[in-house]
Amino acid sequence: MFSRTLRLPWSEFIDRVSEPVLRKLLDKLLERRVIIDDEMDLGGVRSRADKARQVIDVVRRKGSQGSSALIAALCEVDPCLSRELQLM
Fold first, then answer.
1. Do the Cβ atoms of 12 and 86 come closer than 8 Å?
2. I need a surface site. Which of 21, 36, 69, 81 has the fewest CB within 10 A?
3. Per residue in 2-48, pLDDT tens?
4. What SS3 string covers 29-57?
């Protein structure tokens, strides 16, 4: 269910998420032990959209638990965007 939910607003998430929100999402995912330190590095990625794609790709590889954690973190960090993406 969560992987499907994460896949549906994918392009809209990429278009609308800000870099500060992406950084906060990564911090939350690291705190919740969904990702490891090496997966937090977005240094080689230039555009904000590419960073958003990379975050989604990393989390989708974690399965439904990772997707669930990303959705929960997004709802906490950016409730407005979460409502717009119909995740709340």
1. no
2. 36
3. 454 555 578 889 999 999 999 999 999 999 999 988 888 776 778 99
4. HHHCCCCCHHHHCCCCCCCHHHHHHHHHH
- Looking at 3.30.70.580, 3.50.50.60, 2.60.260.20, 1.10.533.10, the CATH number of the domain 2-84 comes to 1.10.533.10
pLDDT in tens, 45-79: 789 999 899 898 888 898 889 888 999 999 999 99
Longest dimension (CA), the chain: 32
Burial class of residue 69 in the structure, from the number of CB atoms within 10 Å of its CB (0-12 exposed, 13-18 middle, 19+ buried): buried
Output the pLDDT for position 77.
96
33 φψ region: left (φ > 0), alpha (ψ -120 to 50), beta (else): left
DSSP state of 85: T
